[in-house]
Design a protein that fits this description.
By secondary structure, the chain is an all-beta fold. Helix content is 0%, strand content 50%.
């Protein structure tokens, strides 16, 4: 199985940094550690944040090399699958009242 879901049912991302982007595309750069199939790799990718009084929405399209996480099929079929894959991310979270920061603070 491509992801070995029976053994690795969850992928994780732990953020370690968030800074403003200066390329004019996305609003911020998000850094952290991505874990897939028990393999952890540092990663940084552009993310767009939309902040309202009640919600924080983050969207991103990030490219990873699946081989770095041992994501593969056995045999010939693996050779016809691209090594670079795109992960589409959308997080829509409620903003706790305790986090009353202004959107220009992040």
């Amino acid at each position: 199985d491509f992801f070995d879901v029976a053994q690795f049912g969850v992928a994780n991302f732990e953020s370690t940094s968030l800074r403003r982007a200066h390329d004019g595309g996305s609003s911020h750069l998000l850094g952290g550690t991505l874990e897939i199939k028990g393999i952890k790799r540092p990663i940084e990718f552009p993310v767009t944040l939309q902040i309202t009084d009640l919600r924080v929405i983050a969207t991103a399209d990030l490219k990873i090399d699946r081989r770095a996480f041992n994501v593969a099929f056995k045999g010939f079929i693996d050779s016809i699958i691209r090594d670079e894959v795109v992960l589409n991310l959308r997080i829509d979270a409620e903003r706790p009242a305790a986090l009353a920061f202004k959107k220009d603070q992040i």
